[in-house]
């Protein structure tokens, strides 16, 4: 089974942390969308986070209005939601495992989010494209590499590909953008 996860187009956040805030995507780069659609090729099932930025990305790719799954939402950053990126607290040096367990006030940790995302991914039975968030991509990567998944860059409108053989997952590609 092949799982492709596409991060949504750049979020229009005004320099603020979006997380669970429902913001628009910048879908103006038609050439980038055309190149990514070509890179995606034939697609089986398509699912999406219910976030507006993900649904707008799916439409811009010509995927129509895919079914949504609430479990695919981005991490809830609690008190940090909507905060200017340059005002986010400095947590200092933390191991990947400690960072994955860290929970902002009123939010969820990466581990919490990964526990929400994983059953949705594990339930898939055939090739699938998911349009979602950087956190969703990292949650899928965590199934293979654990909390080290937090170290992966996930650019807007980038593709990550995983494969499953039986119960085992492998990473085929991460953060692939259309040439």
UniProtKB/TrEMBL annotation:
<dbReference type="InterPro" id="IPR013078">
    <property type="entry name" value="His_Pase_superF_clade-1"/>
</dbReference>
<dbReference type="InterPro" id="IPR029033">
    <property type="entry name" value="His_PPase_superfam"/>
</dbReference>
<protein>
    <submittedName>
        <fullName>Histidine phosphatase family protein</fullName>
    </submittedName>
</protein>
<dbReference type="Pfam" id="PF00300">
    <property type="entry name" value="His_Phos_1"/>
</dbReference>
